[in-house]
Amino acid sequence: MSLQVATLKPDTGLKDKVYAALKGAIVQMDIYSGDEAPKLDERQLADQLGVSRTPVREALTRLEQEGLVATIPRRGAFVVRKSRAQIIEIIQVWAALEGMAARLATERASDAEIADLQETFVTFDSSDQASAHLDEYSEQNIAFHKRIVQLGKSDLLHKMMDGLFIQMQFIRRRSVRDIDRTERSVRDHIRIIKAIEGRDAEDAQRLVIEHALSLAEHVRHHVDYLD
Question: Could you state, in order of their start, the residue ranges of all structural domains in the chain?
Fold first, then answer.
């Protein structure tokens, strides 16, 4: 699997643009689809971006510091793939943080913001529709959880979850291909929305945590590609 990035126009903010472009492209990858971690070819990326190799190298260093990229001597740079145990731990931490975000959302989100959450999700209000649009639902699934965090309106919580969110995107992009999990996910989302609409902090927090931990159990028992 190769990274696909668009050519950039050089300016004073080039370093940050290269970093943002590479990070954005990595986030969109299905990093667990192949037998090995995706390799990042520094020269090829520089050519695709239309820049020298220096800002690419600097961007890869930043991404390595964030844990998204690993450089292996004499082999090059690779996107980091987590082990099953690491993914389960990430999901468990995510569950606790998103649960608090959902709780805060019942207190801080406006009626209009909660209504918008319902409208965004309405296309997927039945398992039949979800099953027919798995790829689209995958992106909606990711957007749904990101919106819950936003509705919590806690800058610190959002910052703490940012790095975890990328890993959650990777694993959810794969788990959504499981039809049974997709149907359960739809039902869970609807219950979460109703709890937030009802301003039920306890129920919203509980439902979000249970939903996330069910993903951890799915990974523990069924996700062979993480071995």
Answer: 14-79, 84-226
Query: Residue-wise over 29-55: b if at least 16 C-beta within 10 A, else e?
Result: bebbeeeebbebeeeebbebbebeeeb
- Look up the CATH number of domain 14-79: 1.10.10.10
Which CATH superfamily is 84-226 part of?
GntR ligand-binding domain-like (1.20.120.530)
Nearest Cα neighbor of 14 from 48, 74, 70, 54 is 54
CATH topology match: 14-79 vs 84-226: no
Q: How many C-beta atoms lie closer than 10 Å to residue 74's C-beta?
A: 4
The pTM score is: 0.79
Helix (H) or strand (E) holding 70: strand 69-72
- pLDDT by residue for the chain (227 residues), tens only, comes to 667 777 776 665 899 999 999 999 999 888 888 888 999 999 999 999 999 999 999 999 999 999 999 999 989 999 999 988 999 999 999 999 999 999 999 999 999 999 998 888 755 545 445 444 445 556 788 888 999 999 999 999 999 998 888 888 888 776 656 667 777 888 898 899 999 999 999 999 999 999 999 989 988 888 776 66
Please name the amino acid found at residue 224.
Answer: D
